[in-house]
Structures are given as C-alpha cells and as structure tokens.
Amino acid sequence: MKYNSIKSGLFMGGVVLLLSSSCKQPAADSFSIKGSVKGLDSGVVILQQFDEEEMTKKVLDSIPFKNGAFELNGKAMNPEMMSIVVRPGNWQTNVFVENSEISISADTTGAEHYDYTAYGGDKGAVLKEVLITGSGNHDAYQTFEKDPQQLKFKEGFAALNKAYELEKKPELKEKMKLKFDSLGKLNNAWQSKWINTYLQQQPGSVAGAYILASYYQMNSDMPLSEIEALLSKVKGEAEKSIYYRRILKSVNSRKAVMVGKDAPDFELLKRDSSSFKLSSLKGKYVMLDFWASWCKPCREGIPHWKKVYQQYQPKGFEIVSITNDSRRADWTRALDQEKMPWIQVADEFPVKNRTARVISQYEAPFLPFYILLDKAGKIIVRSGDEKDIDQKLKELL
Q: Where would I find the Thioredoxin domain in this sequence (predicted)?
C-alpha cells in the first residue's frame, strides 16, 4: 500500500504571483486569462495556488464571473500550474499560468463530481471538456497527457477499476491487484522514457520539470541514480522552478538517510504517553517499522515479525513500530487486536494534512517500510520487503 501525502497526478507548487485585476492589456511581462464556461452564468472565479509543502490552498485573485465569462490579469514570477475555480459549485480546471495571453473555453458537460466533505475536504466538480490555448507550458503538458500511449494506459486503468468495483469475491479482487501492479510498471517505464526524451530536447521547459515532479511524487522510492540522472537534464528556467527545487530537496533528504548514514535520533510518545528516544537503544540492532492500522499489508506482516522478534530479541534485537495513524483511537484499537510485544510509538503531525514528522525525516516512501540499524545506530538496510531484513538478521545474529 503506497504512502504519500498527495496521490493525485497533479503536483502544484508555491511560487508567488503578483496580481492586478485592474490591468486590461497585458505587457510582455504579464498575463491575461480570458475564459468562458458553458453551463454556468454568474458567480465568482478564483485563481488558486496549491502549496504542496504546507498542504494548503491559497487564493491569489477573485473576481466576478458574469454571463458565463471572466478575465484575470496579473504577473507571473515563474510559470506555474494553477487552478481556476468557479463558485458556487467549485467547478475547476488547471492551467499552466505564464506571462502570455491565455484563453480557456470549458463546458460543464461531463464534469467529474467529487465529495470529500466527510473527510474535511471540499465538494465540487472537475471540468473535463476544456480547451486552453496561449500557454506554451500548458501545451507541452497536454502533449504528455494526451499522448496516444498515455491515453491507452488511462483506459486500461479505468477498465481495471470498473472490474475491481464490480467484483464481489475477495480472493478475485486480490488477484486483480496484480494486474494493477503489472500495468503500473509498464506505465512507469513508458513515462520515464517519455520524460527522459522530452528533457533532452527541452531542458529549459518548466512543464518538463512539472511532469518530472509529478512522476517522482508517485515513484518516490525510485533509485537515487535514476532521479538524479533525470534531474541533471533540467536546465535554465526549469532549474529555477519550484518543481525542480522540491525534487532536489527530497533527493538531498534521501541521501541523509541512505544505507551507511547515522540514523537521525527522534523522540516520540508511547501509548502510555511516556517518552521514547531512539538513541536509548544504542548497542542493539533495531528495526524501525513504519506502519498504520489502515495498512493491510502492514497488518498481514505482523505474525511474521512476532516470530522474528521471538527468535532474535534475546540476542540483542529490538523493533520500534512507528504508526502513521492520525487518529489515536484507530492506533490503540489495532494495538489491542495485534498485541505486538515490542516498542510502539505514534508519529506526530505538526501541521494538519501534512505528512508525519519522523516518516518524512526518514524518507519512507510507502507503508509498510523497514529500516534496520546496527548497534552503533547506522542504517544498514532500507526496504519495503521483509525478506531483506530477514536475510541481514540471519547474517548478523
């Protein structure tokens, strides 16, 4: 089960835009966004920015939406993917904003409605019938999104999703997951090749950096050598983008916790609210187990770790399970059910809706994820496969 703060295909950054709704004719260093939405008459149109790090939405400009049309004017410090939202109804689409004359023609027909109010989110609709012209970066992004091979993969996933929803037998649903994995690997291979070719031809394209960032967000466990090879192709304006800088930040964070590095110390609370510090286990082999109550493969692996713990704990081995549950009741219920005999602590969420502190510090890309430390506190294994931990423990103990 993959873990990530956001699992949409959109990776929107936080570069500041300077806006002026009173400016009617854009100069070379400003933008104009003229749009119309068939099926809507009036309301308010919003230019919205998504801050990936803070997991927040920021309204950059808001103007009246009259007779089904609007016009936004301003200045973009850097090209950036933004959202256009029409309220009431939260009808939205995304557009790569850059300093040019941009035109948007949309239709509410066929819009994809969503409702996340039960999770504290919004209710609205994503516009599907949209034509955007005038933004070179948006054109480049659409070249990727509408590539015939990309469309085939989307159709394949849609068909699998439909079949999965209709299937009633649990054992058959489990088998279908293998088809998702297989198609996902083929899709990733194609996307990686496409991005590599595109960056070689257009190294300064901010859209290229955006597409790379989107890909990396969904494949944050890819080998460092691969992502660094792709990053090395990004040049010029794209290298100044928030998308490039965010990938680079993640790569540097991953390097800090790779095999051979000292494990960063941390302090978290146990179930009884007493404090646990990782450094207190120096002198033992320690496995950090990143998990959550809602993670099915995490729960399925617990019987195996009970056997491992029973075998190696007397020889100087300890496990520290770090839950990614944001609701304490879910965590404590799982502890009562699973009765794991090793150390249990809860990760912290300093900022609402953002990833937890320690799992982010250790760059654990998904759940379950395991990190094995030697007696000196150095990282000797990083893996999502329990077999890698088993093999190393067999060598050591």
A: 257-397
